[in-house]
Design a protein that fits this description.
The protein is α+β, with helices and mostly antiparallel strands. It has 13 helices and 26 strands. It has two domains: 135 residues, no CATH class; 409 residues, no CATH class.
Length: 577
């Protein structure tokens, strides 16, 4: 929840005219967005009606009453110097927040202040700080000191800028090969806050990785596999180091939140940037993310999901005191507007697309609102596009043929709103179909049947169908345990074999999420050994996702332009596969 800062470039020519320019009041930079403004690193307070409305709404959200004129003026000054996060910190460090939101209770205040700021101190730290608040009668100075103690280093820093990480730049090449589109028209199928504070965790690659992951609010998996001592870091935690973020997103970030965005068409990678997006919070604040990327959806036949990292809220259940969460996402114009590639290679601008109604929480911290399916498509299996830039190809080949050989004939691909996991950390195994899914078929006579097991020949009136297992996860292995690491992207494939007429009777795929079936978590889930007192993202709901039967037209597009935005015409294949 930081302000977006812009630096004045160039130097003035010495003389009277330049002195006049230096002495001229600095006009705050702002961008209109549906009647709101994104404050852009101003140095003098913006007293426009939009700016006043935002800080007043933030105050009302966190304190439950209108601010006084003096409080509004003070918050405008804070906004100018420290951005959105600074405004929230200033409100949390105020006596009205202590009295009204925390009920005047010192321990409740420290606990709620930490949760509102999205940090996770130990119980010993909470008790110690609460004692200080109590001893000093919750004075303004001690409340501010507590907030300063709780606020992570770098919370008021501007977004990253400068040269992009060269490895990340390989993800900006405009290469789509047999890439799925999910509907005939471009739209946003899903978007929301998936997890907080675990993106860019310092010291995650050192000997105390578990301590730093847990301190950031991340999970740490207890592994039982025989190779646990040599397992990859991703088998233990879904948190990412700053260097890991830089590799996949261009710049390092520190203790940020994740927000996946699923489009109905694949994106043109060279047009993806953080400047394409604005997120409106329930506080009224408007946030630009720090970074954006197609990672982890790096395979050339994927690329319809963009993931952004930034400050988008906290883990408090929406509606409870102190809760901050997104309510709307907008795609906005910038110097290189986001583009989508659709049927036949048609290029459309994504500017103007939005998701969310401005009121309903878009957060995986709402009970039963964890990861979901937003699309499903059944097609004949093709391995075209089942590759990725070399640096990001560690989990390929992971397609149906690589796992099940020539027996693999059909692919039922689902598009998810977050990387699916049994607990937030552990990978989904290719053998896990029956733990999470079942498939609905409806015959010509209207009879419903369910396919629930792998390796079983289901004899239907129109022929036979057998489920082989899951794919588009990780590499094939002879067996799987909790040291196995898959790609954790937004696609999972169910691989089938059988008669085309029988396969064509598939109408839906279900995630029952109860009884004999487990729910899915996104990477913000608790793992199998959660830290006591730390909230984690919620499991996903039970759902029935209709399947688009695309056996005759697979609804894919191949489009290659290695010159990127400099010369859009060159290399464009525009093939419909």
């Amino acid at each position: 929840m930081r302000s977006i800062r812009q630096e004045n470039e160039g130097t003035a020519t010495p003389g009277t005219h330049s002195r006049a320019r230096r002495n001229r009041p600095f006009t705050p930079l702002s961008e209109p967005l549906e009647g709101r403004r994104l404050l852009s690193g101003v140095h003098l307070p913006d007293r426009s009606p939009e700016a006043v409305a935002i800080v007043d709404q933030t105050y009302r959200t966190l304190v439950g009453r209108e601010p006084t004129p003096a409080e509004t003026r003070g918050l405008l000054h804070v906004q100018a110097k420290a951005g959105n996060y600074g405004v929230i910190a200033a409100i949390v460090g105020s006596r009205p927040f202590f009295d009204r939101t925390a009920g005047g209770n010192s321990q409740q205040y420290v606990t709620l202040a930490a949760a509102t700021l999205d940090v996770y101190p130990s119980q010993a730290t909470v008790v110690r700080l609460a004692g200080q608040v109590e001893a000093r009668d919750a004075s303004r100075h001690i409340l501010r000191a507590v907030v300063a103690r709780l606020t992570p280093v770098g919370s008021f820093a501007p977004p990253p800028r400068g040269p992009l990480n060269p490895i990340y730049q390989t993800l900006l090449q405009d290469v789509l090969i047999n890439a799925d589109y999910w509907e005939d028209s471009p739209k946003i199928l899903g978007a929301g806050l998936g997890f907080t504070h675990i993106i860019g965790v310092p010291n995650l690659n050192g000997s105390q990785a578990e301590a730093f992951s847990r301190r950031a609010g991340g999970a740490w998996e207890t592994l039982s596999g025989s190779s646990a001592s040599t397992a990859a870091l991703r088998a233990f935690t879904s948190a990412i180091s700053p260097n890991g973020v830089a590799t996949g997103y261009g710049y390092p970030t520190f203790l940020k939140d994740g927000f996946p965005i699923e489009f109905s068409w694949p994106v043109r990678p060279s047009t993806v940037s953080a400047a394409d997006f604005r997120i409106v919070l329930n506080t009224g604040q408007v946030v630009q993310p720090d970074v954006a990327s197609i990672l982890p959806n790096v395979e050339y036949n994927e690329r319809s999901t963009v993931v952004i990292f930034g400050d988008f809220g906290n883990r408090i259940t929406p509606g409870d005191p102190g809760s901050i969460y997104p309510v709307r996402l907008d795609v906005v114009a910038d110097d290189n507007p986001l583009q989508l590639v659709g049927p036949g290679g048609e290029i459309r601008s994504a500017v103007g697309l939005s998701f969310g109604d401005g009121q309903t929480p878009m957060s995986a911290y709402v009970p039963n609102e964890g990861p979901k399916l937003v699309a499903a498509k059944l097609s004949r299996l093709s391995t075209a596009g089942e590759s990725a830039p070399v640096v990001f190809s560690g989990q390929v080949p992971n397609d149906g043929v690589a796992l099940y050989g020539s027996e693999a004939q059909y692919r039922l691909r689902v598009l998810t709103t977050g990387g699916f996991s049994p607990d937030g950390v552990r990978s989904v195994y290719p053998t896990d179909f029956s733990r999470f899914f079942r498939i609905q078929t409806i015959d010509a006579d209207g009879r419903e049947r369910w396919l629930t097991e792998t390796g079983v020949d289901y004899v239907l009136p129109s022929g036979t169908v057998r489920i082989l297992g899951l794919a588009d996860l990780g590499l094939a292995q002879s067996s799987y345990d909790d040291t196995y690491v898959e790609d954790h992207d937004n696609q999972i494939d169910v691989i089938l074999t059988g008669d085309a007429a029988a396969v064509a009777t598939i109408t839906a795929i279900a995630i029952p999420a109860s009884g004999d079936y487990s729910p899915f978590f996104n990477p913000g889930g608790p793992g199998n050994a959660p830290t006591p007192g730390v909230p984690y993202s919620q499991p996903g709901p039970a759902l029935l996702q209709p399947v688009n039967v695309a056996l005759d037209n697979p609804m894919t597009v191949t489009w290659i332009d290695l010159d990127g935005p400099r010369k859009a015409a060159r290399g464009k294949l525009g093939l419909r596969n």
